[in-house]
Design brief:
The chain is mostly helical. Among the domains are: 36 residues; 141 residues, Cytochrome Bc1 Complex, Chain D, domain 2 (Orthogonal Bundle), CATH 1.10.760. Helices cover 44% and strands 3% of the residues. The protein contains 14 helices and four strands. A two-stranded antiparallel ribbon has the order 1-2. β3 and β4 form a beta hairpin. α5 packs across α8, α10 crosses α14 and α13 crosses α14. The longest helix is centred in the first third of the chain and has 36 residues. It is globular, with a radius of gyration of 23 Å. The chain starts with a helix and ends with a strand. The structure holds heme C (2 copies). One heme C binds next to α13.
Length: 346
């Protein structure tokens, strides 16, 4: 009897091990398929970043893009047929003439319900290490897939959208020229991702300054940049995107959320993804490229002006009060981060 029981226990354990091994195998195969689906991202060559002695690097001027895909992606980005009720397109919230974002704290999606967080810009997304305020997504393809499926954002009805594009000769022609299998869900997303990867704004006055043209900034703007470094803003906002490359708590020093009140789930930030207590109120540090063009600020859209946002940062991230004059100088520096898109200064 005893023997039998041990035997059964061993057998059960053996079954368990076999099950775990099988699960790992399935996961590996799944991963392989997922990554081969978004070939586009793997095929894009990593962009070479010019190294400077500064903690911020200029946006590369020449980035290879597939112009046919980008042109198709641009049309799709503006097309309401990708939304369930033909009312919303990406442009509804990401307006390129408003810095790639929207001038309101929360935007209505297809059912009219407002987004839980402020819309970030789509400009220069390729230089962010992850996407969304909580950094949920590592790849634009997965991010796009999720927002199109999201019943609050696009709720794309794929069959309807695909048929509609197939029946629009101009679209059908473009898809067939680029993709052997024509209009498909994957190809629609692939073209939009190609477009997203093209939305770069190089040649800001600050980048020209970094590249050696000392005349590109006024003395006041240079002083603003010096303060930005000296006061430690640059410890979080750095790299090509002056942000977008790390996670940090909002309220590193003071308790921003307790002072603001009305805490919502969206305020938990990265905690919502990891469920790790240390990640509560942690966010991806946002890029400050073109930041002057995208008020209101923060994930909750609570700061109306750039100066107001800087004042909050000095209080809750640095715990070092700056004078109004210093805040204005930093704001002047941040305004030099407005770049050039398609030959036009933003
Ligand atoms: C209803 C408004 C709305 C619509 C429509 C919308 N977005 Fe967004 N988008 C947002 C919001 C809000 C976020 C931030 C979400 C978060 O952080 O949880 C976001 C985030 C993003 C980001 C990530 C930016 C970053 O650096 O983190 C990209 C890229 C993006 N959207 C592209 C698109 C594309 C492409 C479409 C169309 C298929 C689209 N969006 C449609 C509101 C919208
Ligand atoms: C400890 C890291 C850290 C430091 C230091 C820091 N920031 Fe931030 N910054 C963040 C984070 C995180 C956010 C996003 C907060 C949110 O909305 O949840 C942010 C947001 C911002 C925004 C709003 C951007 C937008 O698009 O909404 C501005 C502007 C800004 N910071 C400027 C500054 C300036 C200027 C300084 C120095 C005075 C500074 N930051 C110091 C981490 C930091």
């Amino acid at each position: 009897m005893k023997f039998l029981r041990i035997d059964r226990r061993i057998r059960r354990r053996f079954n368990l091990v076999a099950l775990i091994l099988l699960a790992i195998l399935v996961a590996l195969i799944w991963r392989h398929f997922l990554s081969s689906e978004s070939v586009n991202l793997r095929a894009t060559k990593p962009v070479e970043i010019a190294q400077t002695n500064e903690p911020i690097q200029p946006i590369p001027i020449a980035i290879a893009i597939d112009s046919a895909k980008v042109a198709l992606g641009e049309k799709l980005f503006q097309d309401v047929r990708l939304s369930q009720n033909n009312r919303v397109s990406c442009v509804s919230c990401h307006n390129l003439s408003q810095g790639g974002a929207a001038r309101r704290s929360h935007s209505p999606g297809i059912d009219g319900a407002k987004t839980k967080v402020n819309t970030p810009t789509v400009f220069n997304v390729r230089f962010n290490f992850r996407f969304n305020w909580d950094g949920e997504f590592e790849r634009l393809f997965d991010h796009l897939d999720a927002l199109m499926t999201n019943p609050k954002v696009m709720d794309t009805q794929w069959q309807k959208a695909i048929e509609s594009f197939q029946n629009t000769p101009e679209y059908a022609r473009s898809f067939n020229q680029i993709y052997p299998d024509g209009v498909t869900q994957t190809n629609i997303k692939d073209a939009i991702v190609a477009y997203e990867l093209s939305l770069n704004t190089p040649n800001s006055r600050f980048d020209r300054f970094l590249s050696g043209n000392k005349q590109a900034l006024t003395a006041a703007e240079q002083e603003g940049y010096r303060l930005f470094k000296a006061y430690g803003c640059v410890s979080c906002h750095q790299g090509v995107n002056v942000g977008g490359n790390m996670f940090q708590p909002f309220g590193a020093i003071g308790n921003y959320f307790a002072d603001r009140g009305n805490i919502t789930k969206a305020d938990y930030g990265r905690y919502n993804i990891t469920k790790n207590e240390a990640d509560r109120y942690v966010f991806r540090v946002p890029s400050l490229r073109n930041v002057a063009l995208t008020p209101p600020y923060f994930h909750d859209g609570s700061a109306e002006t750039l100066e107001g946002a800087i004042a909050i940062m000095t209080k809750y991230q640095l715990g070092r009060p700056l004078s109004q004059e210093q805040i204005d100088l930093i704001a002047q520096f941040l305004r030099t981060l407005n770049g050039v898109y398609q030959g036009k200064a933003l």
